[in-house]
Amino acid sequence: MRLAYYPGCVAQESGKELDMATRWVARKLGIELVEFPKFSCCGSGFVDEANMVLNVALNARNLSFAEAAGLDLLTICSTCQGMLTLANRKLEEPAIRTRVDSALGQLGLHYSGTTKVKHLLQVLTESYPPEKLQPLVVRPLRGLKVGAFYGCHLLRPQGELPGEDGEDPHSFEDLLRALGAEPVMYRGRVMCCGFPILFVKEGTANRIAGRQIEDAAAHGAHAMATPCPLCHISLDSFQNHAAREVGHPLDMPIFHLPQLVGLALGATPEELGLARHLVDTEAALRRIGTVATPA
């Protein structure tokens, strides 16, 4: 399988462990990640709110590179997934298509609208169903109860994004079961992490994150996992702030999706960049019989 690899901004900077884990899992599963240095940011939270047509053009430019290479595009960020998918939908509107075609033409580019955008979660669940994935598991995640946290842009807006029920998705939980973990069902798994308002209403954003973590913990989760690096920032990097907002310690390890897959397939914590997390993952690792090597 060959896919155009769109890591997004966070995985290339503050969340480099997500990129590390994705590359490890891809190598293990025989997925060739084709890189395009000319890819740009998807514009979420900035360009899309200021100029929707410009944001569609920005993402059409990204999509055109994958189309020219005849490849589907792989994302590892729920937000990038949402922006790129919505760009494809918006290009179905003739007025927007005309303006975007004009903008791309000035760059010597053309996009016909054929690139399929696939999040890593979709690739794993569709191309590696349990009967194909389970024989590759060398370290089952038995004994680990995990609260999946989907993030908004894999599920919403429901009318624009294809795929799962926004209120009752199951693909992440199906994957966790295939890896040997016990998925925890809780309301917060389909709620917002608070990141969109983190730098505007910090207290409110951290309370939102804290409540989702509390909800997962109340339902027995030993750890949470997310397919979105922005959710990871809210739930891991700002967890100490969230704890202050809810008035008690939280101490919830937060994994990136490919990190749990990598652990089950035999990667070491070091290969997956777990030491980069702000919330220690050691307690969760002990539950599956592994520990990180001290730095």
The number of helical segments is 13
Main β-sheet: number of strands, strand sense, barrel status? Answer: 4 strands, parallel
Give the overall shape: globular
Kindly name the structural category.
alpha/beta
Radius of gyration: 19 Å
Q: How many angstroms separate the termini? A: 35 Å
Helix content: 40-55%
Strand-residue fraction? 5-15%
Number of strands: 8
Output the helix-strand order: EHEHHEHHEHHEHEHEHHEHH
Q: Please, what is the average pLDDT?
A: 94
List low-confidence stretches.
none
Largest sheet, spatial ordering of strands: 2-1-3-4
Describe the structure.
With 295 residues, the chain is α/β, with parallel strands linked by helices. Helix content is 44%, strand content 9%. The protein contains 13 helices and 8 strands. A 4-stranded parallel sheet has the order 2-1-3-4. It has a 4-stranded parallel sheet with strand order 6-5-7-8, with helices on both faces. Helix 1 packs across helix 12, helix 6 crosses helix 8 and helix 9 packs across helix 11. The longest helix is centred in the first third of the chain and has 17 residues. It is globular.
